[in-house]
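MOLECULE: protein
FOLLOWS: sequence and fold
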Amino acid sequence: MQTGVGVRHKRLRADDSYRNKTMGATTQVLGVSKSASQSLTPFRSILFHESETDTDINRQETPEFFSDLHLDQIIESMVAGREGYDLKPFFKTSLHSVEAIEYRHQILRDLENQRLFECIQSFSQEMRNMRGHLAQAEKLHYRRQNESWFLDAVGIYCSAVRRLIHDLKLTDLRSSGFQGFREHLAAYIESNDFVSLSAETEKLRSDLSGIRYSLHIHGNRIKVSRYGGEPDYGADVLQTFEKFEQAAPRQYRFESPSYPDMNHVEAAILDMVAQLYPEIFTPLDEYCSRHGDYLDSTIRVFDREIQFYVACLEYAERLKDVGLAFCYPHVTDRSKELCGREAFDLALAHHLVNKKLPVVTNDFYLRDPERIIVVSGPNQGGKTTFARMFGQLHFLASIGCLVPGTEAKLFLYDRLFTHFEKKEDIRNLTGKLEDDLLRIHRILESLTANSILIMNESFLSTTLNDALFLSKQVMAQVVQREILCVTVTFLDELASFSDTTVSMMSTVSPKDPALRTFKLVRKPADGLAYAVAIAEKYHLTYPEVKTRIAENEHERVAS
């Protein structure tokens, strides 16, 4: 070997670390999603039943009742870690039919099969890897490196799709959603588009991995040539010095930084390699131009939508691990007879579980002709929590989720309204009472017989007589339209307003009336009983206070 001249050869592989500094897709091939299966078995969505064809989730705004019911907190917890899928619109969109809800329930039941769940998780991870390659390709500066990342992305996609259909064929799928998607996938992988895409991808990857070339380095000049069987001098040197080895050598290891983007020298070398192997790199250029729209739109949509179910199941599983129950609600749009067993406020439960505190569950039911639950009892006794729970159950049921509790029969409403006490806004020229009245007026104008109304201590800003008068006016309209309603109130008179009202009360410990159990039971309102009990506990009854005042006055006069 001449002085100052070095010869080395490198095998160009599609699956080694060098690959990360070679080729990738040009920017224009990223983010496109033309369907390659328009003529395949029709399949629309794993999330939306065919009856929901007019649903436009991208225009869904956050419902007004979300903050009152703490649903915003629940959804944030459910989608945490899945921001890339943009799942919130799915969780804000109520379904319009019982069939659509049952469609989701069937898919959730299929996903309770651990093998299927793991298969979906694996597919999702591969699709994330694919998108990661495409995103990296978009950041790279050199075309051939860009093409390499694109080729790898397509390879990951083809492999993931083949593995998914293999797993689905081995799984006993009961839901029409999964069965329909499996049929679509089976037809897709047999289509000319996918077969040719997969074959081209594998051939290019194989051809690239077979490229071998030599570098002749002399000073600051590099000559690139096809590998012609030149000896590997590195191997010769190692073999020569092996005879001098006497003991295990000391290891000198250091981390060499690796950057995805190649430098200009590597890029120039690669361009020369491409000139040496035009029979490989020219087809690669054409491949990237022709297959920019490789991603099947149905698979792309499935990859996003299936995360809705995964998020629901994983969220429920975390609470099941601490002994809380979830169930598939029986949802009806015909009967307004309701029930819930061992139900709980999901937002509060998540908070309490994180603090390792116990969660109190409650039961409720309504039987014809009952329509309204009037909740009363001592302050801080769980009344507002119960009202939120009632709303959460119905909303979660309306989007096809599992609901907290061991059993639930719920009504599929057309609209849900809340009227909770709001803090006075000093920027608002109206007073607090006027604001309450304006809000309830808008609600009453929009209510239908199939709506649900949840009121929480409305009209606190006025006198007792005025609050009672206003509440009765609202209740009269609710009763007349047979609207399902929960109202939390300090007005005991509302508990027996009509034969459609049911009284529920938050209870206290029988041994200590000052302690709340946070359990609510069906019983007539008796608000004064707790005030008397607490007054007796702290010696604040009228006779005791009067006696204490007299004693203090006597002591003052004596002194």
In short: The chain has 17 helices and 15 strands. The CA atoms of residues 378 and 531 lie 8 Å apart. The chain has a mean pLDDT of 87.
